[in-house]
Amino acid sequence: MRRLTFLHAILLGSGCVAAADSIYHDGWNDLNKNGLKDAYEDPSQPVEQRVTDLLARMTLDEKIGQLQLSHREVDAEKRFGDAIRQGRVSSFLDGSQLIETPTQRNRLQRLAVEQSRLGSPLIFGHDSIHGFRTIFPIPLAMACAWEPGLFERAQTVSARETAAVGIDWTFAPMVDLTRDPRWGRIAEGFGEDPWLASLDAAACVRGFQGSDPGAADRLLACLKHYVGYGAAEGGRDYNTTEISEYTLRNCYLPQFKAGLDAGAWTVMSAFNCLSGYPASGNRHALTEILRDEWHFPGCVVSDWTSVEELVPHGVAEDAAQAARIAITAGVDMEMVSTTYADTMRRQVASNQVAPAVIDQAVRRVLGMKFAKGLFDRPYVDEALYTNAFLTPDAIAISREAAAKSCVLLKNQNGTLPISRNVKSIAVLGPFGDDGGSLLGCWAARGRAEDCVSIAQGIRSKLSPDAEILTVRGCEASTSAPFMHKLSGTLVIASNAPTAGDAAEIDKALAAARSADVVLLALGEPSNWTGENASRSDLDLPGRQMGLFDAVAALGKPVIVVLVNGRPLTLPRLQARAAAILEAWDPGVQGGNGIADILFGDVEPAGRLTVTFPQSIGQVPLYYNHLNTGRPTLGEYVDGPRAPLYPFGFGLTYTTFQYGPVRLSTPELRIGQKLAATVQLKNRAVAATAGPRPVRELKGFQKVRLGPGEARELTFTITGGELGYSDALGKWRLEPGRFQVWIAGDSESGAEPVPFEVVK
Ligand code: BGC
C-alpha cells in the first residue's frame, strides 16, 4: 500500500497538535516500523485506547475535519476529493436524490481509507424516518397502534434497506413532543404523551441499532431535535420556544432519556431558541443535562446549519463566535455550515478555544465511528444492494402497520365493515386512487409506483365483477389556499371553483349516485406536513369540504377515509359522515392496510395519541394538562372547550364494557407495587368483525376478546411511575392521594378509584 511522503505530512501538520509519530504514520492497515499494527487499527484493543491512540496521531486540521458533516452533492468526488485525501472530511449527509448505490459510497470511502494519511473512514448519514424504500406509516400514525414492538420491527427493516445503499447512520427517531398540530413536524413524532413516546423512542433505537449497530444491516440512531423544538410558538417551524424547567424535564426530555437508555449513539441539537438561548448553543441542555447528569458518551451533531444560525439568532456576531459557542456548549459535529472548519484553527492558535475542547469533540465523533465498526469494516458489501428492497417481510410489516395505525373515529349504524358482496363502490376524492399520495413527508426513497392506492386495496377484496368507480372530484389543495408573499407582494389565491372543478364534482356525484357504497378519501398533501410545513388552519385544504358536502347532500351514507399528517378540525365531517377512518399517511401498503380495516379482516384497534381539537382556536389542547385553580371555569364564550376526539380515542367494531377498578391495596408504600385490576368485556353478542396533570398515562394493554368474552386485566403501579422531576431536575415521589382510571380514552372512565402513597 501507499506510504505518504514526508513532505505531504508536513503540509498537513498543524504544527501545534500533531504528534511527531504521526508524520511517519504509514497509513491504514499497514504495519508500522516495528512490523505491528498501530493501536487504533487493532481490533483487539479496547475502543477507548484506539481512540486515544488515533487522536494522538492527528494534526489539528485533521481533528477539525472530523467535526464537519458535509452535504454530499452529485459531484461529491470532484468537490470533496482533495479534502478527503487531506483528512479534512469526516462525514456525509445524503439529501433528497443522491444516494443510489453502495458503489458510490465505497468509492468515496476508498479516498479516505486508502489515500488519506491516517486512513480514517468517513461516515454516511441519511434521514430514514419511516422507511427507506419500503415506506411505513408516518411515526404519528404508527404510535396510534400502541405497539412499540411494531416500531422496532419497522425500523429494523428500514435500517436494513438504508444500510444496503451504504448508509451508516440515520437521523431518527424524531422524539420531539408537540402539543400544536399547526406544526408540520407533528407527523414525525409519537403524539402528546411523554411516557408512550418514550417507549416508542426506545423501540425505534432498538430497531435501528439492534444489539450491535456495527452489524452490516444496522444503523446508528440519532435522537432529535434536542430540545424543545416541538414547542414552537404559533406552531411555526423553527420558532422560539419558552418551556419552564419543570415542563422541560417532565414532558420534553423523557423521550430523549429513554432513547439514550436504549443505547442511541447520537443526538441532534435543534434549531429553536430554547427558553432564552438557542438550542444549538445551549450549555444547560447540551452539557449540564446531557453530559453531566445523563453521562451521554456519544456524539452531538448540530441540525442543518444551526451553528451558523447562532448569528441571526443574535447570540454570535460572526461565524467564529458561533463556532465557539456551539463547541463549548457541547455540539461535537457541525452539519452543513462550516464555521468549525473555517475558524477553529485560528481560534485554537489565539487561545480562544482550548485544544482539549476540540479533542473532546473529536473523541466523540471517533467513538461513534468505532461503534459503527467503520475502522474495521469501512466498506459496505455491494452485493447486499441486490434484492434489498420491498422484500416480502418488509411489505407484510408495512401492511400490518398501515392497518394497525388506522383509528376509527365514527361508525354510525355499523356502516363499517363493508360487506365483500357489494356490487359497486364509488371511491372518490383526491386520495382515492393515488398511491403516491399515501407516502407522507420524509419518504426517503419511497416511490409512487411502489404504493397500493386505496382503490387498489379495495379492488383486491371484491369479486372481479364488482365495479369500482374512481373520481378525484377535486385536488387535495388549491395551489395557494393562503396568503403568501410573492416577490414582495401579498397575493390572495382564489378559492373560487372553476368550470373544470364543477365538472369533476358532477362526475363524482354521478358515481356516488350509482354505487352501493360511497367512500370519500380526503386529506392533506404529503408536503403539507414535515419540515417547514406549518398550517394556520386545520380544516381539510382546498375544495375538499365542498366535495364532501355535495356528495353528502345525496343522502347516502358516506364513508370518509382520511389521509393526513396532523390532527385536523373535523366537526362538520363528524356531524355528517356515516363513518370516519383516520388512516394518516400510511405508506406503500396503505391501500391494503386500509382495505383490511374497511372489510373487517383486521379489527380497528388504533387509538389516538394526540388530541383532535374542534377548532384551531383551542390549540394547544392536550389531555395531560395541569389543573387550574378554577377547573370548571375558563370556557370560551364562543365555542366548546372539550376536544372533538380526546387522546386515547378510537372505536372498534364492537363495544367494550370496563368493570370497576379494584386495587390490591389502598396504600402504596414507596418502593413497593400496587396492582389495579379491571374486568374488560366484549359486549358483542355475535361476531361483527408541583401540580400534576389532571391525568397521565401509566400503562396500557392491547387484548383481543371474542364476542361475549371477558377478561381481567391487571396493571401494576410502582412508585417510579408516579414520580416526576421538579424544576431542579430532582426526581420526586411524594406521599399523597392518587386516583386510578382504567378506561378506553383519556376523557372516559367511571369514578376513579383512590389510593394513598405512603412512605
Ligand atoms: C432537519 C433534520 C434533518 C436534517 C438533515 C434538517 O433540516 O431539521 O431533521 O435530519 O435536515 O436532513
Shape: globular
What compounds are bound to the protein?
beta-D-glucopyranose
> Mind telling me the CATH class of the domain at 392-608?
Alpha Beta
Mind telling me the CATH superfamily name of the domain at 392-608? Glycoside hydrolase family 3 C-terminal domain
Strand content: 15-25%
Structural class: alpha/beta
What is the name of the CATH topology of the domain at 392-608?
A: Rossmann fold
Mean pLDDT: 91
Number of helices: 23
CATH architecture of the domain at 392-608: 3-Layer(aba) Sandwich
Strand order of the largest sheet: 11-18-17-16-12-13
State the end-to-end distance: 69 Å
| Unreliable runs | 1-26, 480-494
Largest sheet: 6 strands, mixed
Radius of gyration: 28 Å
What do you see in this structure?
Residues 1-26 and 480-494 have low confidence and may be disordered. The strands form eight sheets. A six-stranded mixed β-sheet has the order 11-18-17-16-12-13. A five-stranded parallel β-sheet has the order 4-3-2-1-10. α14 (319-329) crosses α15. It is 30% helix and 15% strand. Among the domains are: 1-32, no CATH class; 392-608, Glycoside hydrolase family 3 C-terminal domain (Rossmann fold), CATH 3.40.50; 656-758, Immunoglobulin-like. By secondary structure, the protein is an alpha/beta fold. The chain starts with 5 loop residues before the first helix and ends with a strand. It contains 23 helices and 27 strands. Residues 93, 127, 171, 224, 303-304, 531 line the site of beta-D-glucopyranose.
